[in-house]
Amino acid sequence: MNFYLDELLAHQEWADAEHWRAFAEHSRALADQALYQRLYHIHVVQHAFLWVTGPRTSTFDYKKPEDFAEPAALKSYGQQGLADLRKRLKSTDANSFEEIVEVPWFNPPLKISLRHALMQVAMHSHYHRAQNATRLRELGGVPPTTDFIVWLGNGMPQANWS
Fold first, then answer.
1. Which fold is adopted by the domain 3-55+65-153?
2. Quick one: which of 3, 9, 44, 118 has the fewest CB in 10 Å?
């Protein structure tokens, strides 16, 4: 297993959970359209990369915002996708990380290594978490500090979703 990717995906899961907890503590956060749409986007993209990096036996099950009747459903979807990404990483043979996968939503489809696809999903989530942290502060909330180094300093804790 690639331990750098393992750390990035573990941090991603922890940081996403920290954000969900902060949003739940601030009543206006999950009702805010901009924040919620980005949160939805983060988790759909995580699932899309789970599909890209796995065996392509079917088409991607693209969820729409209206598929999540309430924030708890989106949170559960995100939590499951992150757990599945970590399982995918742990079950990937070390020799497979340089295999080429196709990201079909680019035109033309982008061909990158499995390693780069897994790195992209972590970096993409990081980018949008920062936007949501800024939005939470604008709404009067206090965003959690989710820097990678803080996670390391805290002993690399597991995600706390409750």
1. Four Helix Bundle (Hemerythrin (Met), subunit A) (1.20.120)
2. 3
Task: Determine the pLDDT at residue 110.
Answer: 96
- Asked if 77 contacts 152 with a C-beta cutoff of 8 angstroms, the reply is no
Average pLDDT over residues 35-60: 92
* 65 neighbors 40 (Cβ within 8 angstroms): yes
**8 Å CB contact between 132 and 139:** no
Domain range summary for the chain, segments of one domain joined by +: 3-55+65-153
Contact 99, 52 (CB under 8 A): no
